[in-house]
Amino acid sequence: MSQATTLTPRPTAEPTDFQRRLVTHADAAVEWLARSIAACGGRGSAAYYSRWYRPARGWAPPYPETTGYIIETLIAHADFARRPELIELALSQADWIRTLQEDDGALPGGWIAGGRKPPPSIFNTGQMILGLVAAGDRSGDAACLESARRAASWLAGQVDSATGTWMAHSYVAGYSPAYYTRVAWPVLEVWRRTGDSALKSAAVRVLDTIAGWQQPNGAIRNWEFRPGQPAFTHTMAYTIRGFLESARLLGNEGDRFFDVALRAADAVRRRMELRGRLAGAYDAELRGRYWYTCLTGNCQFAIAWMKLGDRTRDARFLSAALKALEFVTRRQSLGAIDPNVRGAIAGSSPLWGRYLTLRYPNWAAKFFVDACHAAHARLQRLVEDGPCGS
Questions:
Q1: Over the chain, what is the mean pLDDT?
Q2: What is the pLDDT of residue 387?
């Protein structure tokens, strides 16, 4: 064959029935997220919906942290579902977040209720950076990147020189959790866009510290919300994802962080395969609490496993991811009597499980949509290329 010969492009294969289901479920979750923003007058997404905790109205006040990373989900779904109106909704939330920023760059923790702005938070600031970066990348608005830069600079300046992590402005006073890897990640996102080496140095210092907390069984110390308690899969996956995304941004320099993520995620995957599903939480010995499932964590682990499968080319990760995600799709109501439950994802299954008991948090819907997008894309590659690739 002549080198000048070109091949006819392969026609795009039809999606599978499961992919079509993913589209339906993701659309429903995005509609719910849009309602959570409308419930707050367009200024932030309600933290959760619960008639048990909020009998009069159902909706909690807006939560800046999770609104921040919902921005990137809305933008992604605008492209996924060809819904350009979601771009405007996403950018409006970035504008709102910028109004909350302190002069030193910090962003608040907690909810915005009664006009009260909570004190700064390390973790929450990081999550809002992700939204600001996504909004800036999409819109080209330099103000979003400048806001993200100021927030990242504040975070870099807060790294404790003695411990190599963040100690102040924490959820639990005096406790620096392993899931702060998910703060290092957004700091690195800003570094990649600005070239500010101080941001990279601060993020890598934190990542190296937390990488040193990995145990022989793959578990990572301090990845729970509170010291000594079992870790929800939510915070475990936060920790793993922070390492994975940081490794991606750092290139070869980040290989050591990828290896930490791989060991941790594979240890959990093996236990899921043995039991048939993820537990809601795991202790330091990776003994699971199987009487409930943290649905948010299922979605987050699905995303992490798919990313690991991409790099390792180990099909077991995609298999585990699809099982974890399918568990959640079967528990999303598309026809609930209460329209504000329709499309939502509960904190736990059963609903009275220990994680966000009797509540439908906005971040569960966010990670569910992200996982649906990721699964749809990888299944489409399999459909078009076959299981062994093209």
A1: 95
A2: 59
Assigned domain for 228 exists: yes
Instruction: Flag whether 60 is in a domain.
Output: yes
- Nearest 5 degrees, angle CA 266-CA 271-CA 273? 95
CB 327 within 8 A of CB 277: yes
Residues 33, 329, 315, 366: what is their CA dihedral angle, to the nearest 10 degrees? Answer: 10
Q: What global pTM score does this model have?
A: 0.95
Cβ within 8 Å of residue 353, ≥6 positions away: 280, 291, 292, 293, 294, 347
318-329 confidence digits (pLDDT tens)? 999 999 999 999
Q: Domain for residue 11, yes or no?
A: no
Q: Which amino acid is at 388?
A: C
In a domain, 40, yes or no: yes
Work out how many domains the chain is built from and give that number: 1
pLDDT 10s digits, 84-116 = 999 999 999 999 999 999 999 999 999 999 878
Instruction: Give the domain range for residue 274.
Output: 18-385
pLDDT band per the 50, 70, 90 thresholds, residue 239: very high
